[in-house]
Write a structure and sequence with these properties.
15 strands, alpha+beta, 27% helix, Creatine Amidinohydrolase, single chain
Length: 250
């Protein structure tokens, strides 16, 4: 495992990439409503990323055909936008997007309710979000990587939700996916020691039912095996000498 410690200049560029991406997410959130197609979200997201001087890093990544991953209800991640997929009242939808700015990547995901959603769906979204913040309480120099994983898992466990094991967080930099991998489920080993200058994408993916997932025939869309709802929350963070810095926030 080769974890890249970023220089001050690299951090500056990653920070700016993340700041611009957060603006994209904010505008996309305002689009979410019943009757809109997932393809409309993708078109808008692509346009916003380019308008802000970036390149969508998901587009054509290993063949992925869109700029924004739009995953609805039981779709965990990597949903492919379509003009035929229309958001409906009560759906939940996760938007996962990233950009390249001056050679440096950013990555962020949010799950939103469409119109009025059930209390159970709202709770899933909220717990997933809060598990991220519980995790990054451990994202401090001198701690070990899997303390983040264990903190996420410990927060989620009492709710009885399934923590996705087939997909994990990752490092971010000149590549979208760098070392290290960051599981969201409990680990026995401690993992590498965290050091200032590490840039990490921490992204809990939590299912209302079991943890098991499967891939659809498009080879991209990951869904819950039992058809239960799934939520996703992700930020790119920076390990510092003190508290971690959340880079993908407005």
């Amino acid at each position: 495992m080769a974890i890249i410690i970023k220089t001050e200049e690299q951090i500056k560029l990653i920070r700016e990439s993340c700041r611009r991406l957060a603006l994209v997410h904010k505008e996309l959130e305002e689009m979410i409503r019943p009757g809109i197609s997932t393809r409309e979200i993708d078109i808008k997201g692509d346009s916003l990323i380019r308008k802000l001087g970036g390149i969508p890093n998901f587009l054509h990544y290993n063949g992925y055909p869109a700029s924004i991953c739009v995953s609805v209800n039981d779709e965990v991640v990597h949903g492919i936008p379509s003009k035929h997929r229309i958001l409906r009242e009560g759906d939940i939808v996760s938007l996962d997007a990233g950009m390249i700015y001056k050679g440096y990547h950013s990555d962020e995901a949010r799950t939103h309710g469409v119109g009025q959603i059930s209390p159970e769906a709202r709770k899933l979204i909220d717990v997933t979000r809060e598990s991220f913040f519980e995790g990054i309480k451990k994202a401090k120099a001198g701690n070990h990587l899997f303390e983040i994983s264990n903190a996420i898992a410990a927060y989620v466990k009492p709710y009885g939700y399934g923590i996705v094991r087939d997909l994990v967080g990752h490092g971010v930099g000149t590549k979208l996916h760098e070392d290290p991998q960051i599981p969201n489920f409990a680990q026995i080993k401690r993992g590498p020691r965290l050091r200032p200058g590490m840039t990490l994408a921490v992204e809990p993916m939590i299912n209302m039912g079991r943890a098991d997932v499967e891939w659809l025939d498009d080879d991209w869309t990951v869904v819950t095996e039992d058809g239960s709802l799934s939520a996703h929350y992700e930020n790119t963070i920076l390990i510092t000498d003190g508290e971690p810095e959340i880079l993908t926030k407005c």
